[in-house]
Amino acid sequence: MSFAGTHTALVTPFRNGTFDVPAFRSLIEAQIAGGVEGIVPVGTTGESPTVTHEEHTAIIREAIEAAQGRCRVIAGTGSNSTAEAIDLTVEAEKLGASAALLVAPYYNKPSQEGLYRHYRAIAQSVQIPIVLYSIPGRCGIEISVETTARLAQDCPNITCIKEAGGTVERVSALRQALPDSFEILSGDDSLTLPFLAAGAVGVISVASNYLPAEVASLVRSWREGRFAEAAALHRRLYPLFKDLFIEPNPVPVKYALSLRGVMTPDVRLPLCEMTPAHQDKLRATLAALGVS
Length: 292
Prior knowledge:
Structural class: alpha/beta
CATH class: Alpha Beta
Strand content: 5-15%
Strand order of the largest sheet: 1-4-5-6-7-8-9-10
CATH topology: TIM Barrel
Order of helices and strands: EEEHEHEHEHEHHEHEHEHHHH
Number of domains: 1
CATH architecture: Alpha-Beta Barrel
Number of helices: 12
CATH superfamily: Aldolase class I
Helix content: 40-55%
Radius of gyration: 18 Å
Distance between the termini: 36 Å
């Protein structure tokens, strides 16, 4: 399986404190209509740390049923507990997920050897492809280039990494150390274009929740050799890419989606609503794009 293209890191809509299934299914339909290649339920953007185990499974199930095979479903199944991550990944495979996204264990800060054993144990528990997820700004630890290469060599179903370390240099180092068959996805919308230039094949995007067609077009344009078109889209969308992170993700993108009336802006504590000043700033950015 190739992970080339645009994959939306889906928000999890809430209404009156519970998972809003109709809003979630509507969001997925908008993604497929916009031409994304995949969706990613219950990742960081899906507020995975604050959903219950039952909700986590239900969200993955709803995503798979809504997609109906029309796009990839990469289920977020990461945890700082290896046993919990295995349980979630095994369940995602049973439900029919295309692949699983496994964030680096957070808070407990394992050694690189511990990281290797964590991912190897998960990979050995399932047959579906595993996408590593390195985001040191949130986890406090990076999946090193050496550990990634070791996992790629020893675990046949670990075939991709979502790179959110914030530097193009990391993509270049990964590309040099990994076989051509091992794919890299951007984990930062604002860095997707330079990451593609350095050897990534696509993105797991927050912005595509709101603008699926535009983000998909950016990636597709680059991959089809229309570099000037991709660069123009990047420049146009860059202010939105940045403003969707003026407060912790997914608070801004949920607020943007709420302006369209497709869901509430509700997030779960300890996240909370945007400040009025940031709401004004994001609305101005959307208006300038002509998409508010």
